[in-house]
């Protein structure tokens, strides 16, 4: 070999050694192994020898990996192309190295008595893979221990991950779900809602939380709260992470609280409502008796008859309005779908229910609206729920001003940023800061025992938030002022 060739070989061997790679040759007939500096360093071989019996090398191979290495070498001799193999060696002080090797037969020889190969250290790679595998398993265990169903979808709405709780909810195994979309398992009308909200999240790149319905593995329709979050996993790839919470029982409890609050409000007004209905009934009764007397008198004036009948009709209409308002607020709201209703109409119903209480105490109750707002201005809600909110607030106002000689309460209606802003303001005493901080909590009340449930404000807030509105106490107003907003349609 010429000097340039020797120098080139030296550089080549140095490069292999620096890369923690080694070259070797094995004589099958003699079972003798030859190696270079890189191999010597890799296997921690001592002394100046660059050759040795095959057995001394095999003794360094981990006992569990020796049979696998022999089978691999035999497969190469037999001409199979699987020419890479991974095994472990045990060094002094039980240090473990992971070695990957490539074995070739020498094609220049007529027989396959000489094997040549390269070996290199992949310990760092294997440790990294093991750590990654541990991390993945740890993450998987965490996700599977979460009591809420979790899923990940790609941009085609196909599931790419589901946790065990999601699989239990649908009664399917993971392999039945991965790669499938909602259309394979849910009603079309449900899927259209799911996908519309998926697209909203993916296009806006913002998380979204919505109440939805789902049919579980037992065929039951469940109310769920789904939070969907976009996640970028590459320059041009995005997935959607979803977390589901079953709120069926919670909604049932909320509905029960709403009904309790509603009945409590009506109970507080029962005497005034009875009086409100009794007044027109007394008028009707009196006029009916007079008409009986006039009928028996042949000289009675026909115009007097007409006026008496008109008064009876007016009072019947008055009773009818009271009864309709009571039916509206006492109706179980979840029986009705949301509908497009006049905001002024809702205020009228609450006003009709509440006004007698204020009138009886000579308190002023009135409504102020923007001039441009009329009965064509609508919002989409369950009417009885919003009427209940107004009645709750007016009941609170009544309690606050009932002992004042010139007390008042006012409903203000305006439009702010494409939302209706409804204010219930009264002349009641200032509310202490510590009470303001607690008064939205369920069952918190400052009223005496038997006069309040402590549910009115918390239930009212839940109702308004359900319609994407806000509900709060306005600290900036000089008077006591509760505000809620509703979307304008």
TrEMBL record:
Q: Which residues form the PAC domain?
A: 208-259
What's the name of the protein? Answer: histidine kinase
Give the EC class as a word.
transferase
Reactions mediated catalytically: ATP + protein L-histidine = ADP + protein N-phospho-L-histidine
Question: Which GO annotations describe the biological process of this protein?
Answer: regulation of DNA-templated transcription
Keyword ATP-binding among record annotations: yes
Checking InterPro entries in the record gives: HATPase_C_sf (IPR036890), HATPase_dom (IPR003594), His_kinase_dom (IPR005467), HisK_dim/P_dom (IPR003661), HisK_dim/P_sf (IPR036097), PAS (IPR000014), PAS-assoc_C (IPR000700), PAS-like_dom_sf (IPR035965)
The family database entries (SUPFAM superfamilies) matched by this protein are listed as:
ATPase domain of HSP90 chaperone/DNA topoisomerase II/histidine kinase (SSF55874), Homodimeric domain of signal transducing histidine kinase (SSF47384), PYP-like sensor domain (PAS domain) (SSF55785)
PAS domain location: 8-80, 135-183
Tell me the GO molecular function terms: ATP binding; phosphorelay sensor kinase activity
């Amino acid at each position: 070999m010429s000097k340039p060739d020797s120098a080139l070989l030296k550089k080549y061997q140095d490069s292999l050694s620096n890369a923690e790679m080694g070259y070797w040759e094995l004589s099958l007939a003699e079972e003798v192994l030859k190696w270079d500096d890189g191999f010597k360093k890799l296997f921690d071989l001592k002394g100046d020898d660059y050759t040795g019996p095959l057995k001394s090398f095999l003794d360094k191979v981990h006992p569990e990996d020796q049979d696998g290495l022999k089978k691999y070498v035999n497969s190469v001799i037999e001409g199979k192309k699987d020419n890479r193999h991974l095994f472990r060696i045990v060094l002094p002080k039980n240090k473990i190295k992971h070695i990957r090797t490539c074995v070739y037969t020498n094609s220049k020889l007529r027989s396959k008595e000489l094997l040549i190969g390269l070996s290199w250290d992949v310990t760092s790679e294997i440790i990294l893979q093991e750590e990654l595998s541990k991390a993945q398993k740890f993450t998987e265990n965490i996700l599977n221990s979460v009591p809420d169903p979790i899923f990940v979808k790609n941009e085609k709405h196909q599931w790419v991950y589901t946790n065990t709780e999601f699989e239990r909810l649908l009664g399917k195994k993971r392999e039945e779900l991965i790669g499938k979309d909602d259309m394979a398992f849910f009603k079309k009308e449900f899927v259209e809602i799911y996908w519309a909200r998926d697209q909203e999240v993916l296009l806006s790149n913002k998380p979204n939380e919505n109440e939805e319905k789902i049919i579980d593995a037992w065929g039951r329709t469940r109310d769920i709260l789904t939070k969907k979050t976009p996640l970028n996993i590459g320059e041009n790839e995005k997935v959607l992470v979803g977390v589901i919470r079953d709120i069926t029982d919670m909604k049932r409890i909320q509905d029960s609280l709403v009904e309790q609050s509603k009945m409590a409000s009506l109970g507080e007004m029962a005497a005034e409502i009875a009086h409100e209905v009794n007044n027109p009934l007394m008028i009707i009764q009196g006029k009916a008796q007079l008409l009986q007397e006039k009928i028996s008198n042949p000289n009675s004036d026909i115009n007097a008859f007409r006026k008496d009948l008109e008064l009876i009709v007016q009072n019947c209409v008055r009773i009818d309005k009271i009864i309709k308002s009571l039916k509206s607020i006492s109706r179980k709201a979840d029986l009705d779908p949301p509908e497009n209703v006049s905001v002024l109409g809702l205020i009228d119903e609450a006003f009709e229910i509440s006004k007698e209480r204020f009138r009886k105490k000579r308190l002023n109750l009135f409504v102020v609206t923007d001039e441009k707002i009329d009965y064509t201005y609508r919002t989409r809600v369950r009417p009885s729920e919003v009427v209940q909110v107004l009645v709750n607030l007016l009941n609170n106002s009544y309690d606050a001003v009932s002992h004042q000689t010139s007390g008042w309460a006012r409903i203000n209606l305006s439009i702010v940023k494409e939302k209706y802003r409804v204010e219930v303001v009264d002349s009641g005493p200032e509310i202490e800061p510590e009470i303001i901080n607690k008064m939205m909590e369920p069952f918190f009340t400052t009223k005496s025992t038997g006069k309040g449930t402590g549910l009115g404000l918390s239930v009212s807030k839940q109702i308004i938030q359900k319609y994407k509105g806000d509900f709060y106490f306005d600290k900036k107003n000089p008077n006591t002022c509760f505000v809620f907003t509703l979307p304008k349609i």
